[in-house]
Amino acid sequence: MLSLAALANWEAAVLASIRGATGTPEERDAQITRSGMYAEYPAIFNTYLELVTLGDDPAAVLEALKRAVFLAWYSFKEPSFDSGIAELPESAVRDLMDALDRAIAGGRTDGELQWMLAWYADQFGYVFEHFGPVRRLEGFIGGLSANDAYDHRGEAGQFVGRGQLGAYWKAVLEAGER
To answer: Does residue 112 contact residue 66 with C-beta atoms inside 8 Å?
Structure first.
C-alpha cells in the first residue's frame, strides 16, 4: 500500500502533465486522453479508498478519506480536462460515501473535514446524495456554510504536499485573503 506522501507525489506528477495540455478544452481533452493521464486518477482514488478501508493509522485513514472525498466531489464539479479526473468507478464512490458516513458516525473526523464538507455541500452537494446518501452529513456540518472555510485563510500553508486536495484548498484559501 502506498503512503500518503507517495500518493501526493503521484498526484503532483499527474497534475503537472495535465497542466501541460494547451489549446481549447477539446484539444486539451484530446491531449490528456492520448497521454493516458485519465487512467491515473481512478488508480489514485482506489489507493486512497484502500487506505481508508484497510489502514491502521487513524490519522492516515482520515487524511486518505479527506483526499478521496475531495477527488470524488471534484470529479463532478470540474470538467475532466481541468481536473484530470475522468470517470471514477461508481461502486468505489459509493463505498467511499459509506465510509464517510461511518467515519462521521464513529467520531473519526475532525474540524477540518467538517468545514471542507460544508464547502463541498454548498458548492455542489450532488455527489453526497447521488452516491450516498451520506445520512449524517447535514448533522455533522451543522450550521457551517462554504463561507466558514475562509476562517481558515491563515492555514493555506498546511495544504502543501496533500495532492490535488492540497492544491485546491491552498488556492481557495489564498484567494480568500484580503
So the answer is: yes
What is the C-alpha to C-alpha distance for residues 7 and 55, in angstroms, rounded to an integer?
A: 14
Q: Which helix (H) or strand (E) holds 170?
A: helix 163-175
**35 burial class (0-12, 13-18, 19+ CB within 10 angstroms)?**
middle
The C-alpha angle 23, 76, 143, rounded to 5 degrees, equals: 130
Distance, CA of 103 to CA of 97 (rounded, Å): 10
Residue whose grid cell is 501541460: 20
3-class secondary-structure state, position 132: coil
Integer angstrom CA distances of residue 52 from 32, 95, 168, 170: 28, 10, 21, 23
pTM over 0.70: yes
Contacts of 66 (CB under 8 A, 6+ apart): 112, 113, 116, 165
Neighbours of 171 (CB within 10 A): 12
Residue 70: partners with Cβ closer than 8 Å, 6 or more residues away: 116, 120, 164, 165, 168
pLDDT at 178 (0 to 100) = 39
Q: Which residue has the cell 461502486?
A: 91
Which residues of the chain have a pLDDT value below 50? Answer: 178
How many other CB atoms are found less than 10 A from the CB of residue 107? 7
